[in-house]
Amino acid sequence: MKPPLISPSPRAVNLKPSTPASLQAAFTEGQWTNAANLAKQRHRVTKDLYYLAIEVAAKSQSDNVADRIAGKVLVESMIKDNVIITDAETIDLLEFSCSKADVKYSETIGLLRAKLVKAIPKDKNSCVGCFEACLYHSDWKNAQQIAASLNKNFNDRSFLYYYLLATHLYSISDDCPEGSRKVFSMLAKAQADKAFDPRTMTAGIDNRIDKAVLTESEALLWLVIRLTHCTQEENVALFKRPEYGALAFLEAGYQQCYSSIRCYLEDANAWDDVFQIGKSIFEDTIRLHQKEALVLESDETVISLQKAMKAGTETSINLVEAVANARPKRSETEKNFFIASTQWNLFWSLFTAAKNHPDRQQSLKQIQKLFTKMIKALDRAYAMKPISKRTYDLVTLQILFERGAQVPPGTDGHTPRVVHLINHMMKHSKEHRSYTDACRFVKDMSKPEVAVFLTSLRARGNECADPFQRFALISLALKLRYSVATSNSLLSCNCCGAALAEGEVPNCVACLKSIASNALNCYKSGMDDDELRRNIMPKEILDPLSELTVVGALSLLKLSGLGQGMPMRKSNSPLYGVDVQLFLLAVVWLDSSITASPTLNNTHPMLLVKLYLLMGCVFRAETLWEELKVKNAMLDSLGLLYVDRLSTIAPGLFMGPGQKPTDPVAAHLIKAFKNTNPKWIAGSLREGNYYSILEMLDRTQKQSTSCTLVMTVLEDRRGSRMKTGKVETPIEDNPFVRNLSVDFVLQDVTNYSILSDEDEYKLESRFDGTKLQPLHAMVNYGPLPTHTRAHLGLLAERFMDFVCYVQPKEYKPSKPGQVVQMDLQYAVSTCDHIKDATKNFLGVPNAKLSEDEKIKLDFLREKALASLTEPETHYHSIVWRLADMIVSILGTKANPASPNELRDRFRLQVEDLTEILSDQTSSFVAVPVKSKLRAFHGFGSLHAMGMLRESAFVVKHAANYLAAASEKLKNTDKTRSASELAWLGPELKKMTAAAAESEGTIKARIDQLRSFLSDVDGWQERLNHWTFGEYADIYSSHEEFKREFRESLKTVVKEPNRNAWADNVGESWRRLILKGWDNVKFD
To answer: Using CB atoms within 10 A as the burial measure, which of 331, 390, 614, 914 is most buried?
Structure first.
């Protein structure tokens, strides 16, 4: 089930040339009142609906509510009276008049357009305009009918593809009735096959369709329809036929069709077909290069230049130009096959097919010979490019690994596989992908092989004469060692063989200490090498010093215990049980490195952003985030790395007159939904790029159900509420989320590869058979965005809107009693839905359920706990109980209970509520036992403070709502005695008192943090003491290692730099309090 797409911006409308000049001028210049009056006068004279449409279009732009919905009222009356409009410009104006009203396009404007097409099917321009308008508004139902008419009545080949596109989209849309879905699916398939079959003819065209005249976009549309509406068996059988096979599309130059079919065959495990496709491409390409080589080897210019190069003689032209001039011209088919032969996906497909062949060893041997032959042919024909050479090296290495996968028992690890891998790393160590390549192989190596490989790689790095390559190899070796040392499954290290304590698994403490120390020593050596830093590194694409800093810092973070669970259940911060000194040493090293020399390694600043957010140093994180320059489409996939939970940590960022952190994300999404995506779709239709339309619609659908969209809305509302102490705009007025019911699945589309490489994650999951915590989860402030957390947030915001709503004073209903009863019914309905949905997401236990239902509920509860921080769990539990309390009080008519039963149940609910709020407050103020770093833990628990404020806020407003509702109930429901709800007041006061107590705790913490920061000069010394000094803490460990490491780091981060860092941290915390939490509204 998919939510309806967000309505795009209204399309521009132009009045007819026959329109009076005064009316045209008023409408064009935005003089809406004048334009409406002129149109009204003209309509009175002519009785022409066109002028009535101008009138309501002009009125729709006014601030008057009645005028703004005038277009909607007019259109709905026309639909009811079965009015048929035969003027497309009139419907355009009606569409414009409904742009600010909440209408369902397919049942209003879209229906009028379908009626127009039926009435005047031969008016090509009007019919095409109506189809484009329906496509613009994603109205597939009426677009399908219009496209069918266009295809039937006009001799235009493009209309056939309009019809195919609309029929396919309608068949998979939620607007298509379940009973009709199969019919339209079969229709789309049949028409697509007919259009693509060279033996058939299209309607109205006498000439046979030639597949060669189809564009790739048209072929892709046919392919999408086939893959969507046909079974896998049908498609595989079709793709095995030569005229529909992958090679046929490749010969025609349809690279994307060829790739799609090959990938589909892979997914269907049709390995024989995949093998034959790859083998044919390489054999044809080899023949091409051998033919070219014969020509080049007989060219006199090329021969003379080769001799001159060997003799060291200078020439007027170079060999590359001579080869290009002598090379015979390639046909289009030869070009297509050559391009395909250079693609990594084809290599991997052929390799995978060989692995899955019954005679595996023979198949691998066969493709190894094929690749060797291909390399020779490329070299002879001077066609080998560096990227192609790297690809061939990688695939050849993969084949060698696969053929030698069975390592004899008892081997010492010195296998040919290790030798080949080391040689490959030496050859490609200066490339970004070298680490990813190594991970691909290391995860399949035995334990002895891994140990030998890491030792040998480090030794080769130490012996390397090239300083840049030396640092690149050492950083690569340390990164690989880190990945292996943090993914152990047994009680011994996969890397060094050391025994592991049960609590240490999966991390090897000895390896992590060694990695951190070695990385620091190597980093120090690199920083001391001015030639390397100033003259060599700026010319390279890799930054080994940054890589060393990151792997060393990660080792410190692992040793500190970050992300490895909390020492107690009631914890208010991811840093609660962390060794603070190790954490701060990692932060200061990362910061000093990026300050000393900006890096191209995006992992470095992004990691630092996440760590600063964890410690509440938000304004320093903001500076680094801005330097990353995450803009436009990148905000979709990266925005939540910074924005998520930010409003509860740093409300000050949402209070100033400038731009809020959520504004860039919201602006990008608004532009995408309202302008970019619809205009792209319209442009693609005019260009005949039908597949691009499908891609954009898919992207738009993903954007509309992404956690990025929902979390942006939630953070913006929470931040605004911190500032104003009230709900300013109802969530139902937000076009992003108002249609997102709990039935829709929300996806986290964040691209975490900026922090965690995918192959590193695969490596970590290899050794214990289960997925371990990746880096992006370790450094995140709580669990990552999920469907559960996003929907719970929306439900809480809807409840917040409900309890905070204040009826305008000027509203004076004529029948107040009837209105109150309707309000109460709405209240019960709304809160009952919120209660049930929240209860389901939280997995609240229920003794009445069956065993199967209880198991399912346990799963939901575990899912909720894995999606929420402890303060968020408290908050949503409170919202659920408040909704339940409102239903109990206001829903007594539907569920009659005696006054005593109602009172007793409500008192128990209040006790549960105040207990949860008290637990949340206690958890918030908790500090690790005997810890001397109360200030640090205070800044590290700001999220808990923000969520506690939200809990107190909602409890207070819910109590106020219940007090007001009970008064209305007593005044309007004469069947109740005046004393029936008299007991409610004292219970509500308990709720209000508990909320006030929690708010008092927050205010006391703010005062405490402000007092910590009052001594500016002493703060620098305190931070330096925490990071580089001697201090005792209950969670402190590794004392000797820390002493040695901080002394070494002092030699890298000089005292002025340490003081500057401490000043930056202190200033960031100071701004956080003085310009943020000090201004949060509580009353």
So the answer is: 614
